[in-house]
Amino acid sequence: MFSGKSCLQRQKNAASGFTLIEVLVAMCIFAIAVLGLAIGATSVMRANQTGLYTTIATNLAQDRLEELKSRTTANINTTGSPENNLSVSGVPVTFNRSWTVTSNCNSVTGLTCIAVTVTWTDYISHTLTISSAVKQ
């Protein structure tokens, strides 16, 4: 038989709150979540920085490529001595730029290929090459 009085007494005598094990498990779950967020934030910051450097390198390569394309074929240096330590204000990384010019590009007579390569190192080494073909 069910007695309402014994049920009320059992609730009064029961301890309320969290046990030490429950608190430790909750703290571990919270610590793992915070650590995951910190790693994610670091990855996003690194990706943004790499994107910035790639954009700068692309602009440096495009600048040299356009300057070489504006010259006549006879006035284009066939190999560019590397331009080392190109710096951009506010950026702690230095860039190196070089280029090559090839006549009869891809075995096509009258076609000159220009390839500009920019390298830089932040946490790893990067290389970016932009190329174009010009009619002689």
What descriptive keywords fit this protein?
29% strand; alpha+beta; rod-shaped; 4-stranded antiparallel beta sheet; 136 residues; 2 helices; single chain
Give a description of the structure.
It is a single chain. The chain has a four-stranded antiparallel sheet, with helices on one face. The protein has 136 residues and is of the alpha+beta class. Strand 1 and strand 2 (94-102) form a beta hairpin. It has helices at residues 4-13, 20-69, and strands spanning 79-87, 94-102, 111-121, 125-135. The chain has one domain. The chain has two helices and four strands; from the N terminus they run H-H-E-E-E-E. The mean pLDDT is 85.
Summarize the SSE layout with pairings.
Blueprint: H1 4-13, H2 20-69, E1 79-87, E2 94-102, E3 111-121, E4 125-135
Antiparallel strand pairs: 1-2, 2-3, 3-4
Structural class: alpha+beta
| Coarse shape | rod-shaped
State the helical fraction: 40-55%
How many beta-strand segments? 4
| Most strands sheet | 4 strands, antiparallel
Series of secondary-structure elements, N-terminal to C-terminal: HHEEEE
Q: How much of the residues is beta strand, in percent?
A: 25-35%
Distance between the termini: 105 Å
Number of helices: 2
Instruction: Give the rounded overall mean pLDDT.
Output: 85
- Strand ordering within the main sheet: 1-2-3-4
| Integer-rounded radius of gyration | 32 Å
What is the total domain count? 1
Residue stretches low in confidence (pLDDT < 50, at least 5 long) are none
What's this model, at a glance?
The chain has 136 residues and is α+β, with helices and mostly antiparallel strands. The protein has helices at 4-13, 20-69; strands at residues 79-87, 94-102, 111-121, 125-135. The model has no long low-confidence stretch (mean pLDDT 85).
